[in-house]
Structures are given as C-alpha cells and as structure tokens.
C-alpha cells in the first residue's frame, strides 16, 4: 500500500504523470467540467472533503509554480483567497474572469471535484519542477 500523502489512486496517477507547466484543477462541487477533461470526483456530501483539505493534500506531492484563480474570488470569497495564499505564499497568482477559468479546464490533465459549497472555490495549479 502507498505510504505517501495522496492515496487516491486516480489522483496519485495524475500527479505522477504531470510535467513542467502541466495543469491540474481542484474545485467546488458545482464547477462544470468540460467533456474530455478527466474528472476525479472526491465529493461525498456537502463540505466533505473541503476544497482546502484537497488542495493541501495535493500540495504535499505536487510542485506548483503558478496558480490561476477567478477574479470573483476577491470579492465573493475573500476568506478562501486568504487560505489559498497562506498555503501557497510564494507562488505567482494570475486572476481571470470565472468564465475563462471554466474554459481553461479543458487544458487540465484532470479536475478534482470536492464537496466544497462556497463560491469561486476553484483553482488551476501549474506544475513546476523539483530540480
């Protein structure tokens, strides 16, 4: 049995296959996922697992050099934005309209659906390199 942090087999496989500048998205329960984008559905019920729990779990195994967030998170969910910045303090953030973020899910290796029920709790992680 795997000993490291991410034990979900689908998620672990996606992370292991990521290269420099590849994208992985994590989001709330309501985010629409484009056909053709792999969807890893971890949602069990409202708030379980939370967006932040899944993000922290993924960050234990994935080197991230940049993140993409919806502009709307600044005004519609500032607490979530603060939490994201706390776990990724030195990572560049690019903001875009939520509609563009949704379109960019088609460029992601996968979308990880959480049980999160707060608005604009969606992120695209751009992988970095460990050397």
From TrEMBL:
<protein>
    <recommendedName>
        <fullName>D-ribose pyranase</fullName>
        <ecNumber>5.4.99.62</ecNumber>
    </recommendedName>
</protein>
<dbReference type="GO" id="GO:0016872">
    <property type="term" value="F:intramolecular lyase activity"/>
</dbReference>
<keyword id="KW-0963">Cytoplasm</keyword>
<comment type="subunit">
    <text>Homodecamer.</text>
</comment>
<dbReference type="GO" id="GO:0019303">
    <property type="term" value="P:D-ribose catabolic process"/>
</dbReference>
<dbReference type="InterPro" id="IPR023064">
    <property type="entry name" value="D-ribose_pyranase"/>
</dbReference>
<dbReference type="GO" id="GO:0005829">
    <property type="term" value="C:cytosol"/>
</dbReference>
<dbReference type="InterPro" id="IPR007721">
    <property type="entry name" value="RbsD_FucU"/>
</dbReference>
<dbReference type="InterPro" id="IPR023750">
    <property type="entry name" value="RbsD-like_sf"/>
</dbReference>
<feature type="binding site">
    <location>
        <position position="28"/>
    </location>
    <ligand>
        <name>substrate</name>
    </ligand>
</feature>
<keyword id="KW-0413">Isomerase</keyword>
<feature type="active site" description="Proton donor">
    <location>
        <position position="20"/>
    </location>
</feature>
<feature type="binding site">
    <location>
        <position position="98"/>
    </location>
    <ligand>
        <name>substrate</name>
    </ligand>
</feature>
<keyword id="KW-0119">Carbohydrate metabolism</keyword>
<feature type="binding site">
    <location>
        <begin position="120"/>
        <end position="122"/>
    </location>
    <ligand>
        <name>substrate</name>
    </ligand>
</feature>
<comment type="similarity">
    <text>Belongs to the RbsD / FucU family. RbsD subfamily.</text>
</comment>
<comment type="pathway">
    <text>Carbohydrate metabolism; D-ribose degradation; D-ribose 5-phosphate from beta-D-ribopyranose: step 1/2.</text>
</comment>
<comment type="function">
    <text>Catalyzes the interconversion of beta-pyran and beta-furan forms of D-ribose.</text>
</comment>
<dbReference type="GO" id="GO:0062193">
    <property type="term" value="F:D-ribose pyranase activity"/>
</dbReference>
<dbReference type="Pfam" id="PF05025">
    <property type="entry name" value="RbsD_FucU"/>
</dbReference>
<dbReference type="GO" id="GO:0048029">
    <property type="term" value="F:monosaccharide binding"/>
</dbReference>
């Amino acid at each position: 049995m795997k000993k490291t942090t991410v034990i979900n087999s689908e998620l672990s496989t996606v992370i292991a296959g990521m290269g420099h500048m590849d994208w992985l998205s994590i989001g709330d329960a309501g985010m629409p996922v484009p056909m053709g984008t792999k969807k890893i559905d971890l949602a069990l019920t409202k708030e379980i697992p939370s967006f932040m729990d899944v993000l922290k779990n993924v960050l234990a195994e994935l080197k991230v050099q940049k993140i993409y967030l919806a502009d709307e998170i600044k005004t519609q969910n500032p607490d979530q934005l603060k939490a994201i910045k706390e776990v990724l303090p030195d990572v560049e953030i690019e903001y875009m309209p939520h509609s563009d973020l949704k379109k960019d899910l088609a460029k992601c290796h996968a979308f990880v659906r959480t049980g999160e029920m707060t608005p604009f709790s969606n992120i695209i992680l751009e992988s970095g390199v460990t050397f």
